[in-house]
């Protein structure tokens, strides 16, 4: 039996929020923030693949500036 992705709940919450709010991201900032927090803890989560890259690129930009 496969394990459930630790950040799947947050990923689903983002999808549900975006659909309910006509894909206006600013209306879903709280659930997106929850996803980022989960991804900080569970970097190997499949659901976090886009968030992990975003997090690393922000760190790189900070170092370059």
TrEMBL record:
Keywords: Disulfide bond, Mitochondrion. It is found in: Mitochondrion. Its main location: mitochondrion. GO terms for cellular component: mitochondrial intermembrane space. Coiled coil: none annotated. It holds the Pfam family CMC4. Disulfide bonds join 7-38, 17-28, 39-48. It comes from the Eukaryota. The keyword Disulfide bond applies. PROSITE patterns: CHCH (PS51808). Belongs to the CMC4 family. This is Cx9C motif-containing protein 4. It comes from Phoxinus phoxinus (Eurasian minnow). The lineage of its organism: Eukaryota, Metazoa, Chordata, Craniata, Vertebrata.
């Amino acid at each position: 039996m496969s394990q459930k992705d630790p950040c799947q709940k947050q990923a689903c919450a983002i999808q549900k929020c975006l659909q309910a709010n006509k894909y206006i991201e600013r209306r879903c900032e709280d659930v997106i923030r929850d996803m980022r927090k989960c991804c900080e803890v569970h970097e190997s989560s499949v659901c976090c693949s886009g968030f992990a890259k975003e997090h690393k690129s922000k760190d790189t930009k900070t170092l370059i500036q």
